[in-house]
Design a protein that fits this description.
The complex is a heterodimer of chains A (133) and B (145). With 133 residues, chain A is an alpha+beta fold. Chain A is built from four helices and five strands. A five-stranded antiparallel sheet of chain A has the order 1-3-4-5-2, with helices on one face. Chain A starts with 15 loop residues before the first strand and ends with a strand. With 145 residues, chain B is an alpha+beta fold. In chain B, 20% of the residues lie in helices and 37% in strands. Chain B has four helices and five strands; from the N terminus they run E-H-H-H-H-E-E-E-E. Chain B has a five-stranded antiparallel sheet, with helices on one face. In chain B, 37% of the residues are buried. The chains are: A alpha+beta (133), B alpha+beta (145).
Chain lengths: 133, 145
């Protein structure tokens, strides 16, 4: 993993892989309080045209945040994170978080970040983050 | 059916959430966050924070109440089965520790239609028990066709 204190604009952020277990949407529902049936009920997900239940977007955002806080080894240094949920994440998918450092200055890095599933399809796009160094 | 933009500026009353140590661990487990500061009381106590630190996106747990009220607001009559989360932004101003009491207010800040879909944004402002701003959230939902 690159050293967060010495990276420069143009350098990649670490890549981080997250396995989405079959029951993660149900576990995340309990942990977060988001029990929307599209996340916990495959039949309901099919009925509304999603093909089954889908992972909470905010769980995927949590994966994106974790790449930063693991990199900084400090949950207190992530200052801003913005994401767009571009495609549903399904049970048994693998989500890979990626990014590029865009700017460095004022004691912080500003990064462009995104996430892909195991087929290389973007599940999070237009991600922007700011993390203290 | 389009959501009426006259509700931009509508506010939802503050709600207070007490951050529990085990809830933080449970949330960290869900996103696979192994940082000892979020899990080990001993390591967290020995750190500059002095107590278990919530992962930043734990904001979804303590700040969600006003967002939920907006989603179920009869004034908006959102078609929930067709609603998806479109975008999310958080600004993290201060860390949140186990034992903190976080009070969150919500306000509708955007309602617009684009390509036949309705977009609605709730902005949440969360403060701790000392009145310090800890997190600003912008939650954007899209009602599919």
């Amino acid at each position: 993993m690159s050293d967060i204190n010495t990276v420069n604009p143009g350098d990649p952020t670490p890549e981080q892989k997250n396995k989405v277990g079959k029951y993660l949407p149900i576990y995340y529902a309990g942990a977060s309080g988001d029990f929307n049936p599209i996340h916990i009920d495959p039949e309901f997900g099919k009925m509304v045209g999603l093909g089954g239940n889908i992972l909470q977007g905010l769980c995927t955002m949590g994966f994106v945040a974790k790449m930063h806080t693991d990199w900084a080894q400090d949950p207190g240094r992530l200052k801003r994170l913005k994401v767009r949920f571009s495609k549903p994440v399904l049970p048994n998918d693998t989500v890979v978080v990626k990014g590029t450092v865009k700017e460095k200055g004022g004691g912080a890095l500003r990064c462009e970040v995104w996430a892909e599933n195991q087929k290389g399809e973007a599940v999070i796009t237009n991600g922007e983050s700011e993390i203290e160094i | 059916m389009a959501v009426n933009p006259k509700y931009i500026g509508k506010k939802y009353p503050p709600s207070t959430y007490e951050v529990g140590r085990e809830k933080v661990r449970e949330y960290a487990d869900a996103i696979g966050d192994m940082n000892p500061l979020c899990r080990s009381l001993e390591k967290a106590r020995a750190s500059k924070y002095g107590n278990i630190v919530a992962p930043p996106t734990f904001a979804v747990v303590y700040a969600k109440e006003p967002v939920g009220r907006m989603l179920l607001d009869p004034d908006l009559s959102l078609n929930l089965p067709m609603l998806v989360h479109g975008e999310q932004e958080f600004e993290f101003h201060n860390v949140v520790l186990a034992g903190d009491e976080i009070t969150t207010e919500g306000e509708i800040t955007e309602i617009y239609e684009k390509k036949g879909k309705d977009f609605v944004t709730c902005t949440t402002t969360s403060k701790n028990q000392r009145g310090e701003l800890v997190c600003t959230g912008r939650w954007t939902f899209v009602v599919r066709g």
